[in-house]
Amino acid sequence: MPQFAPLRVRGGRHRLRRTVRRRRHAMAAGLAMAVAALAASATGSRGPAEADRPQASTAPRREGKPVEVVSVPVRIADGATVRLLRPGDLVDVIASPVAPSGGGDGDGTARVVATGVRVEKVPRVGGEPADAGALVVLAVPRPVAAALAGAAASSRLAVTMC
C-alpha cells in the first residue's frame, strides 16, 4: 500500500468553532428579542414609570370597563367549615334568613349571594365562641360586596366549596 501525505483542511477546528460561536450569538440575540417582546406586551400600553406601580386587581371586563375587586370580611355561621378553607379556594356564599324574633320561621328560603369568589384570607382568631361562626376575607367585585354586606345584616351566611 502506498504512503499518502496527511490530509490538511484549511480552517478545520477553528472554522467549526467560529460557526458554533456565531450560532450561539444568533440564538442569544433571538432570545433577547423574545424577552424584550414579552416584557413590552406585559406592561401593555403603560409607560415604564407606571409599570412598576402596583395596580388594583380587576375582574373580567364588562362593557369595556374593568370591574374593581375588593376584599370583604364576612362572618360565616359555621366556624368548622371556615377551618377547611385556605387562601385561593373558590366558594359560593349562601344566605339563609334568620328567624324573626317573634318566633315564626318566616320564608326560610336560602339564596346564593355570590358564586365562585376567591378566599383571600382565613384569619385565625383564638377565643371565639363556636356559635359565633368564623371570619373569612373574600375577594369579590364591588357590587357583590354590597350584596354580601346586606345579606350578612339579615341572614346567616354559609359557604360551599367550588
UniProtKB/TrEMBL annotation:
Show which residues constitute the signal peptide. 1-39
At the top level of its lineage, which domain of life is listed? Bacteria
UniProt region (Disordered), positions on chain: 43-66
Sorted alphabetically, the keyword list is: Signal
UniProt protein name: Flp pilus assembly protein RcpC/CpaB domain-containing protein
